[in-house]
Specification:
Elements (H helix, E strand, L loop, with lengths): L7 H6 L2 H24 L9 H25 L3 H32 L8 H24 L4 H21 L11 H9 L1 H14 L4 H21 L2 H11 L20
Helix pairs in contact: 2-3, 2-6, 3-4, 4-5, 5-6, 5-9, 5-10, 6-7, 6-8, 6-9
Length: 258
Amino acid sequence: MAIATAPRETIVHGDTRFFTIMAFVMSFIIVAGFSVNLAMGRSSFDVPAVYHVHALVFMGWIGLYLAQHVTASQRNWTLHAALGKFAYLWVPAMVIAGGAIMIVVARRTGGPFFFDVNEFLISNLALLLCFGGLALWALRRQRYNGWHRRLMLCSMAVLTGPGLGRLLPMPLMIPNAWTITTAATMVFPIIGMIADRRGHGGIHPAYRWGLGIYAATFIVSMLLAYSPMGYAFTEWVIADSAGAERPMEAFLPPGFAM
């Protein structure tokens, strides 16, 4: 591919503006989604502590992610590398905090009414692991920015789902709200592919691997969610909880106005 023979300066230092813009766009979507939810009264600060820990960890990651792109755009590679060391601890913390909040939400409410409980729980957990795997892979390739930046973009795309889900008209998407939202997040790696082709004449393999792993994880997670094992796992998690009182399938609450 053309990009494979591009000058080292182009691979290491090029495209900084594009990746920085993408980082701010994806971060804005996430923050906007949760802010709109709070402003419209759909969420509250009066929740168990695990919600606040989850928010702190994930918003902290957004701050770190943006800081890394700012330091890269300023060519401050020393500070960039120093901050990057925090990510080795932060990513596992996100997987743990994210997994905990999904289980708590499933047991408290069964998840948002516009998602099936099994897809919300199982596919969500799988995609969280996908994010963690892609992010850690990106960190391992930090000396090869052609891979590092693109894998990080793919991993961050996974996290935009909750933000998009709070901005899109989810009730109108039942029964495919989860699939549509997840598919929408994949537009960010696709934009990266287009930018690569336009700027370098070819698509970097990091996008093919990153988006391929993301798509494959989603497909496998949905097959698992709707398998007997998936239903059994979901029922086991929400057993004897308030979440078990709602239907397994997505539904419109009584009196909900479309």
